[in-house]
Specification:
mainly alpha; 61% helix; elongated
């Protein structure tokens, strides 16, 4: 008699494995990475614009300042929860979280600057100007990325239907934010 391998002696499941089609997926890591890249680019672009407008502010430590600022922003973003899933929530809430994150990062940078020699590289006026420019880029690039996602979701073949179960205020708000 033939002996079957151990794997074939296992009982077959009553239900076949489910496919990923039709499942609600968590916030994609690629979207989180895109947001982090956009925020990092905003910080670098903001510093570049500042140095372009005021060449006397350019120094050997400009790159270090940019990298430390990105690190401070990422730490602040973890504290404020900036890189969570914002689908179904109004953009103003995300903009408020981005504002709090950049403000916390700037406060951290100013505090760090008091304990290191880097506070002599940029004046308070230059830091304020850079913070304002970078803030505009952080909010602006997030707004552009949201507009792009909204536009892509209206394209034929890229949309999916949905149903909201239950008629209450939360369901109505969700329907408004999705559409």
């Amino acid at each position: 008699s033939l002996v079957r391998p151990a794997a074939s002696r296992l009982p077959t499941p009553a239900f076949p494995p489910m496919s990923n089609r039709g499942r609600i997926k968590p916030f994609a890591a690629s979207a989180r990475l895109l947001n982090k890249l956009l925020d990092s680019a905003s910080i670098v672009i903001g510093l570049w614009v500042l140095v372009t407008w005021h060449p006397e502010l350019n120094s050997k430590s400009t790159i270090v300042i940019a990298l430390v600022s990105i690190g401070a922003f990422m730490i602040a973003a973890e504290i404020t929860g900036l890189y969570r899933d914002w689908r179904g929530i109004s953009f103003s809430n995300e903009a408020l979280a981005a504002t709090a994150t950049w403000g916390l990062a700037v406060l951290g940078l100013l505090s760090l600057g008091q304990f290191t020699e880097y506070s002599t590289e940029l004046s308070l006026r230059a830091i304020s100007l850079w913070a304002g420019i970078t803030y505009l880029f952080v909010i602006g690039l997030r707004n552009v990325s949201h507009a792009l996602v909204r536009w892509l979701s209206t394209q034929e073949g890229l949309t999916r239907g949905f149903a909201i179960v239950g008629i209450n205020e939360l369901g109505i708000e969700l329907a408004r934010n999705i559409s």
